[in-house]
Amino acid sequence: MNDNTQISYWIEGGLHTSITRSIERIAAAPKVQQVAVMPDVHLGKKVCNGIAVATAGTIFPEAIGGDMGCGYLMADVRGSDRCLRNERSAAKVLQRIAGAVPIIFHNLESAPAQLPDELENRPFSCERLEKLKPREARKQLGTLGRGNHFIELQKSNSGLHILIHSGSRSVGPAVLAHHIENATKDKASKLKFLDADSESGRNYLADMQWARAYAAASRYRMLELVNQAIGKVDLTVELDSALDHDHNHVQLETHRGQQLWVHRKGTQSIDRDGIRIIPGSMGTSSFVVSGRPTDEALRSCSHGAGRRLSRSQAFDRITARDLKQQMQGVFFDTRKTRKLLDEAPRAYKDIRKVMKAQRELVKIEEERKPLLNYKAG
Question: Among residues of the chain, what percentage have pLDDT more than 90?
């Protein structure tokens, strides 16, 4: 570890040795000044999910990951929840959402003719990535993706809401794969880095920002598609209420008077009185929060509950019956039960304990309970 690197923890209980080693590895990497560990921290590829890393001039693409721009879009919904009070009517709503939002690709008829102007007219740093625009990027705009990505209808004391979690689809991994080839490998940490002021560093940052913008545009496109779909059951998304934030990025920020490159992988930035949402799992509550930011935490908070079991462990330990019991009161596509075992609530940490661990960082403004969850499996 660098002598001057600060590591701060917002967790309850201890950490697995492999997580501790992963945190210490990134803390020892070149020019890393600070690491903030959120209560949803869990193992990820190369670098843990649920941490923020601040550096003085170095960029670590692996401390952001391939799904750059992954984040949440939340909005209010007008209408009654009577269509979500029984299995038959809820199944129709779920079917409408699934029919409107593909998992992987739009077909030729439903794909947009071109990307939004701010993306279409914004060039990538190389021809290799530019080729993504007419193919994958266009056909995947407004698609959900697999893993823990979801569309959820929720209810709170203030009414109905929608929450969309998705990322940059195949664009982000392509950007990571291209730029990691030009990165320097640090012998001690085994991580690759770029100089932020170098041409390769600037190119990475520009392409990463494109992927962030693409992910946000994709979430908003899904919101529009869902709005059209649920309008047939007298539900209307209040598009003007939409609030979007991502949790996989790097950006230049000032902390304690010093400009630092803050990497967030599965971690949300939050300013004082800024509003974010922290979901639990597909069967547990989400919490709308305002910020109590501190430089010690790099003005960050968790992006969710965080995995308790790896995907393979979940498939081994959780049965279809377990999942159905854990999902009581929440409608989902039961035909996908066996495919969704790794997303069962028990595969995740207790969201209430996670919220308690970061009470110095956020203030809970509202609890939202899931009514219906659409996930790929």
Answer: 94
pTM above 0.85, yes or no: yes
- How many other C-beta atoms can be found within 10 angstroms of the C-beta atom of residue 289? 23
Q: At what angle do helices 199-230 and 171-180 cross, to 10 degrees?
A: 170
pLDDT of residue 1: 67
- What token pair was written down for 148? 């823990």
The type of residue at 168 is S
Name the average pLDDT for the chain: 96
User: Is 7 in contact with 27 (CB distance < 8 Å)?
Assistant: yes
331 DSSP assignment: B
Summarised one tens digit per residue, pLDDT across range 199-223 is: 999 999 999 999 999 999 999 999 9
For the record, the structure tokens of 307 come out as 């995995």
Question: Does the pLDDT at position 146 exceed 90?
Answer: yes
- Among 177, 176, 169, 173, which residue's Cα sits nearest to residue 141? 169
CATH class of 6-375: alpha beta
Enter the tokens of residue 298. 């790099």
Q: Is 61 helix (H, G, I), strand (E, B) or coil?
A: helix
Q: Which residues pair with 73 in a beta bridge?
A: 164, 244
DSSP letter for each residue of 72-129: EEEEEEES-GGGGSSHHHHHHHHHHHHHHS-SS---TTTS-SS--HHHHTS--SSHHH
Q: Dump pLDDT digits (tens) for 245-271.
A: 999 999 999 999 999 999 999 999 999
Q: What angle do CA 208, 211, 212 make, to 5 degrees?
A: 90
Strands 6-9 and 32-42, how do they pair? parallel
Q: Sketch the domain layout of the chain as residue ranges.
A: 6-375
